[in-house]
Amino acid sequence: MNEIKRKSADQLNYVALAGGVGGAKLAHGLAALLPPEQLTIVVNTGDDMQYMGLQVCPDVDTVLYTLSGWANTQSGWGVAGDTFNNLGALAALDVDHWFRIGDKDLATHMLRTLLLESGLTLTQVTAELARRMGIAHPILPMSDAPYPTLLETNQGVLDFQVYFVKNHCEPVIKRIFWNDGKEGQASPQVMLALNEADCVILCPSNPFVSIDPILSLKGVRDLLRERFCMALSPIIQGKALKGPAAKMFSELGVVPSAHAVADYYKDFVSLFFVDELDQAEMAAIAELDMAVEAIPSIMPTLKERKQTASLMLDSFFQHFTGVST
Ligand code: GDP
Ligand code: CA
What we know:
alpha/beta; Rossmann fold; 7-stranded parallel beta sheet; 41% helix; binds guanosine-5'-diphosphate; binds calcium ion
């Protein structure tokens, strides 16, 4: 921490770990406050899939679309104002079309696939997509190699998107694993960013299928234990705002709560944020040997995203320098 104290606020390096919708919201707020030199966003690729020969990276795309302003904020996925003519044509041709890709969205996957086929890595391709969408901050897919999330359920082992989209998260989860149990590698760029980070921020993403894939890559969890890590709860009042995070806690035998998230991260997180509605959980979280604060954390628009991000950054700075920004 002495090293941090010698740095001024504008010299600190932050890495945000994000999945899709919840992660992108906080990343958006952070990106509005921190310059690209100070913030790197590392995104889950466990959800990635092939769709009609195209490489789709749903969480990376949610982050790209959110930071570029392309996002469909109503649905939480895809591009605002998109049309689905292509999907209609596929249906007319009797193609199984449970994965809904809009016409504009399709362009992203076409370009990604084209660039990958030209020999670029997923990291390079994502940087190129970000540049073309006018995003200045580095957005890093967690790995250049496929590292698919697999769910062992009461309906057998399912690919992530089959569980999430085709089966609407209905199967009961028994276990989550990655890449057939074979260890994965974070990209060199991710390891470098984490090595240089003064503060790692766990966005309010699903702990099991958005953050865990990143943590399970070789060396990442160990590295985080040596870094200052803070996290914002994706669970508010015992519920997920969207998606299966609360259901997953229950199925894995834990009552969903902000405390359950803090407990899940307790081996490396030292500052935890709950929503202001969950102040009653703060005392129990403090017993996990981490600092805890309550902040407004529901972030529908950029205004709330900036406010939440700003409170988190201020708090980090105060905790570890004793100085207010
Ligand atoms: P996904 O990959 O699209 O499912 O997205 P993430 O894993 O990044 O985020 C899902 C989580 O985001 C859910 O558990 C939600 O409860 C949480 N979430 C969504 N919006 C918000 C928000 O405004 N504030 C907070 N604190 N959590 C949110
Ligand atoms: Ca996701």
